[in-house]
């Protein structure tokens, strides 16, 4: 808010002021006094917000975190289980205001002296964040120097401040830090005592519109236009739209915006829901030839206490609310000729978890689970002495619904539907077989569709089935062992069945967790051998041995099919981006020979492509060489390369190059390894190295 020395002098002056309206206001405001002296320290977080998938360098989410001392920072999970702060937006915004003399525009009247208490308050309130929310990813085309067009992704972060101003930051993707900030614009909302913020994103006739929904602690809710000239293809409102204007002293606690399709009007619409006290305020926004139609109302009779948390399943529009007494309401929107109505039903958590108090809820991305934060409730009319916070998981879908959604998914990415795959995984682990209807439906999809997504889904099912038939480990697998034992990396069919990204878990039974963790960090081949030896000793379990070997053969067959499909893609990139007799770092000849080595593999597309590539290579082989002994590295295995002197190098599963360095990347489920891009790599190889795992769709770290 000013030079450090001047700020310290002003704080001392206000604290010792004779006027109690100044001294008491100053001493009790934790924005002015984050250290608090005798008060409790300001530790922890006020609010956090996740960006959409695909914003960081690994294609995952960024995390915007607002601390109790009003510092807004952005973090990224760059390495596995390691979070790094990328930028401090509070510091950057403060520098911008300081350079502009704490004026939003040049036409503003000159600001007063810092020694005036109202000016001291104004400078703090204009940069004290209340809420922040991410927009969807905006894709624009950028023209390069050689007149080529490339798609450039960007994302917006809106930050709501105490005085009602909104700062809209634009970041170029992937977000790497301060250098990725494109612009920052400040909008005046005109809302007094703002409490909550949400993006309004609406698509009408292939035109995307956006705005910001702001709620007040006094009750009003309105949409603010966002004019961003830098973001092409996006439109906004001409003027603010008031959704609720009554100053009824019902604070707006949470706002959700859900895109839906109106079955009667035959067009897309936008449903805005807001928690106001014990009520849910809803507003249906619909663009027609007459303009923007706004229908709004309240849903009453849901809770006897104020709503403490609200979440929404954006796939079907279902809204969930909870109050602190352990009651969760499910609201299902049903369209009518004009607007809509809600059917709601009560979910009593006390029937599942006993007497509990609820503090927050969230629905998983595909609507499979509802996560609930709980503490112990009253026992015999008495409150508990201490609070133990727990995250409980409640299933919202059956196994059959999850399987059907995975089969008909438009996303076609297992990693982005990990909550649905967790339900399927649990069913197979428990029943020790893949249901017949799922197997038949998946085989039919594989026959009719050419997508490798269904092959990856089949591989996932086979690996879980393989895992379910092994004996459970005698000791806890997640606990690190202190033995310095060497482990041989071998070709194991079960690698990747470790569900590390599914640590969100469920609270169905403790036995589920022990079953679900089976195989984490354990060499699958070793456990398979143990189970085989055990079955041979007993003598009566020969069918189990045969079943394991059969599943293992199926896993290897599916993995080989996925490998061949990716090899064809890599060869296609090589053909498109190379000249005659050009040496690329990719072992092109080795990949071609590996594809054609199996007499049973007859793919006309692959044969034609290989013929064109060999003609372009003009009898050149360009083999890889071992960096230790300079011997040729033959391409005989897709997972590793072994020279004549016995030096073993792991192969990159994205480009099939040998990783001849000590540092490499690994996919989230430890399925495969990939090398790091180097500065001398051409753009098309760097693009290949950005891809996810070809077996499980997981990002690579």
UniProtKB/TrEMBL annotation:
Residues of the Transcription factor IIIC putative zinc-finger domain: 618-668
Superkingdom of the organism of origin: Eukaryota
Domain DUF5921, residue spans: 398-475
Gene Ontology MF, one: histone acetyltransferase activity
Entry GO CC: transcription factor TFIIIC complex
Bias (Polar residues) ranges: 507-516
UniProt region (Disordered), positions on chain: 488-542
Xref: InterPro entries: DUF5921, GTF3C4, TFIIIC_delta_N, TFIIIC_Znf, WD40_repeat_dom_sf
Occurrences of domain Transcription factor IIIC 90kDa subunit N-terminal (ranges): 6-397
Pfam families xrefs: DUF5921 (PF19336), TFIIIC_delta (PF12657), zf-TFIIIC (PF12660)
GO biological process: transcription initiation at RNA polymerase III promoter
Name of this chain's protein: TF3C4 factor
